[in-house]
Amino acid sequence: MATGPDWETIGPPPLGLFATEQVRALRDLASGRERRKVARRAVRGDGHAVLVLPGLLAGDFSTAPLRGFLRDLCYDARGWKLGINRGPEPDKIRALGDRLEHLCDRHGRRISLIGWSLGGIFARELARARPDRVRLVISMGSPFRDISATHATRLVPLRRGDTPHGENRDLHTWLRQPLDVPTTSIYSRTDGIVHWQSCLEEEGPERENIEVDCSHTGMGFHPTVLEVIADRLGQPEGEWHPYADRPSGPKRQAHRRAS
Q1: DSSP letter assigned to residue 192
Q2: Residue boundaries of the structural domains of the chain
Q3: Is 117:141 a contact under the CB 8 Å cutoff?
Q4: Average confidence (pLDDT) over 108-123
Q5: Which helix (H) or strand (E) holds 149?
Q6: In angstroms, what CA-CA distances link 81 with 50, 52, 78, 113?
């Protein structure tokens, strides 16, 4: 990994992890019994809205299990309703901002944002632009530290004009800047799509990195990830505490890094 004061190139995860990604994702998907256990013991929510954003080349169908889990916990979990995520298309970015405003106005309170992979980068930038409308941000396997550190952008290159996003130094510097709202980054060292180091938030107040053991494409329905998400959303608004400091928080697989 090459580093500099405001620039680093991490690169995608090893090909061995990439080759086994789908097999491990199927294993994660099959853990329905554990998911039901998580749902039974999780703290019920306060009814606030949660906007869930999909990853690259995915849509609301991919986040349906997560949104169903959150609705069972009494949150108003919503999809982005913008079809397939094909990258930062200007029309969709504007529509996403409008959806945030609509949900905030409807509920009369801030909402939480959850983003999977590229959706997590969208969630972060939405919160950066409208911090007064966002309660907290949770990203899952999102390479905001180095957007080129993923096999996905090699298959579907993301570009700004004629320059690939992965080669845009200013964009790299911008995306890794911390937010003004509580932020949780969930990552996995066994992620076969996104390199885990590209998901690490800078140390500082109201920021945390939580490690889990699962595939990239299994994050949206893995029991440990759901457990972490339920715990983070269950905090009273304005009373955010790091995950490892929560006395009732599950500790079996997840742990906090770089608080």
Answers
A1: S
A2: 16-257
A3: yes
A4: 97
A5: none
A6: 13, 10, 8, 14
Q: What are phi and psi of 185, to 5 degrees?
A: -110, 120
In 3D space, the residue among 84, 182, 187 whose CA is nearest the CA of residue 144 turns out to be 187
User: Under a CB-based contact definition with an 8 Å cutoff, are residues 136 and 101 in contact?
Assistant: no
Fold classification of 16-257 (topology level):
Rossmann fold (3.40.50)
Give the DSSP H or E segment for 109: none
C-beta of residue 207 within 8 angstroms of C-beta of residue 183: yes
Return phi, psi of residue 173, to 5°. -65, -40
- Say which DSSP state 239 is in: -
The CA distance from 195 to 188, in Å, is 8
Rounded to a whole number of angstroms, the CA Rg of the chain reads: 17
Q: Which of 45, 46, 51 is nearest to 102 (CA)?
A: 51
Statement: residue 55 has pLDDT above 50: yes
The pLDDT score that the predictor gives to residue 7 is 54
Q: Which residues contact 35 (CB under 8 A, 6 or more apart)?
A: 69, 221, 223, 226
Cα dihedral 240, 246, 249, 255 sign = positive
Q: Are 123 and 175 in contact (CB under 8 A)?
A: no
**Which pLDDT does position 249 carry in this prediction?**
43
**Residue 161 CA from chain centroid, whole number:** 26
Provide φ and ψ at 137, rounded to 5°.
-125, 130
More confidently predicted of 213 and 162: 213
